[in-house]
Amino acid sequence: MENLILDGRKVAQSIKNQLVERVQVLKEKGVTPCLATILVGDDPSSATYVKMKGNECEKIGIKSLRIHLPKETETIELLETIQKLNEDASVHGILLQHPVPSHIDERKAFETISIEKDVDGVTSFGYGQTALGFGKYPSCTPAAIMSILHFYQIPIEGKHAVVIGRSPILGKPVSALLLNENATVTTCHSRTTNLSEVVRLGDIVVAAVGKPKFIQGDWIKQGAVVLDAGYNKGNIGDVDYDACSEKASAITPVPGGVGPVTISMLLKHTVDAAEETISKH
Amino acid sequence: MENLILDGRKVAQSIKNQLVERVQVLKEKGVTPCLATILVGDDPSSATYVKMKGNECEKIGIKSLRIHLPKETETIELLETIQKLNEDASVHGILLQHPVPSHIDERKAFETISIEKDVDGVTSFGYGQTALGFGKYPSCTPAAIMSILHFYQIPIEGKHAVVIGRSPILGKPVSALLLNENATVTTCHSRTTNLSEVVRLGDIVVAAVGKPKFIQGDWIKQGAVVLDAGYNKGNIGDVDYDACSEKASAITPVPGGVGPVTISMLLKHTVDAAEETISKH
């Protein structure tokens, strides 16, 4: 079956093109959007992610303020760093790279980010607003998944969406966003019994498990839309792409699917947040 | 088939018995738990609900501070009233009776309630904390449903729970609570296609639609547990009780099911909040 490959690079480019113009307008008004990223410790993949995010900011004219704290940093010091960024009017968005070293209370650190600067959508306050339908900055991967569906005009209303995974920044918020766009939403996880049968209910399937090639071809209903939010070692998604694409009417590849759009949502939220500071004056 | 009638009055009594002792201890420490209720306008059923809540408080020794504002009250005046209660250290919980007159921004009013006093679980912040698994005061009806399941030791983990309804204080939070206790959760609503088929997936079915006798007997899988959070005119639930109880292994009646437990959760949260003020000192 011929299926549609959901090209995340194309979606991301379209978003970034609009942002370039908006950043220009902001700068003419004397405001340079700024994303502060905080990296704690020396985990090489975290360092790579943060660097990539910073570089993507700069490419479209967003200032990237990169804070690197040593791995011995205590929770209280991290909270102070975040608090200073909350108070710094030149900073519009704050991203704390997950994971932080295990001795740090990561949840407490996330919760310290002020709602106005939570462009990565990690606070419980932001999650609550998103789920109740008036959040400004949903988590970036869930927002990316919705952007892909919108870009390709894939119908959501009345469809049965099955989300595999329930993390605070992925499974839960993407379930909430799909529900708010009138999908019937089933959220599955490691304790789900008969997972394959449940996934087979899905007109839209979102894989957010963090296990390479976990979603099998025969779990997918003929004609379903498959979105793979997984990004495992060696550029491998959560979905067995070859097997699933035989069943799916549309599918995101890995790499080049959800990933690139996720970063563009982070940029968009940062520009949104910068614009908010102007509209308040 | 002989089935188990989930007796909400029994669950509520068990909760209230514990609260009487806890209130006693608080009073010995010089703290009288206090719930402030705000009623805006003269809707007779709202007036009845608020009165009932206040009376239930007093029965177990919680102070009931009853504020009645005229129906012409403007949003800003309501916000000021809430703000004063937020600042009043003798008040431990704040309940704004829904619905307020339509000219008032109810969401804004709810959001003004401080998280420490949001014992009715109406703020987006409280919702987010609940959904992410560390909320102190989930909305009372969802909390009541979980209490009934716990009281009757009904297994939740790995079960497929189907919630019909997605309101901010009922369908969404009960979905979140069931998910956090390891159910696979499907949330349905007015745009769900093939609703009867989806409901038939449920090992646990929660009806939160607000339409009398909406859930039909042939929608219920043999042996499912049915919880009716509906409370429609004339004491009628959302579930066609007679038809559904022929299929269900356990079911809540209306009245005498979820309703009484809901009020006891409000009392419990108020006592919890009063205890929190002591543990902070």
From TrEMBL, chains A, B:
Domain Tetrahydrofolate dehydrogenase/cyclohydrolase catalytic stretches: 6-120
Pathway(s) where this gene product acts: One-carbon metabolism; tetrahydrofolate interconversion
Gene Ontology MF terms: methenyltetrahydrofolate cyclohydrolase activity; methylenetetrahydrofolate dehydrogenase (NADP+) activity
Binding-site residues for NADP(+), renumbered to this chain: 165-167
Keywords annotated in UniProt: Amino-acid biosynthesis, Histidine biosynthesis, Hydrolase, Methionine biosynthesis, Multifunctional enzyme, NADP, One-carbon metabolism, Oxidoreductase, Purine biosynthesis
Catalysed reaction equations from the record: (6R)-5,10-methylene-5,6,7,8-tetrahydrofolate + NADP(+) = (6R)-5,10-methenyltetrahydrofolate + NADPH; (6R)-5,10-methenyltetrahydrofolate + H2O = (6R)-10-formyltetrahydrofolate + H(+)
Function field: Catalyzes the oxidation of 5,10-methylenetetrahydrofolate to 5,10-methenyltetrahydrofolate and then the hydrolysis of 5,10-methenyltetrahydrofolate to 10-formyltetrahydrofolate.
Sequence similarity: Belongs to the tetrahydrofolate dehydrogenase/cyclohydrolase family.
Full protein name: Bifunctional protein FolD
Organism: Heyndrickxia sporothermodurans
Lineage summary: Bacteria, Bacillati, Bacillota, Bacilli, Bacillales
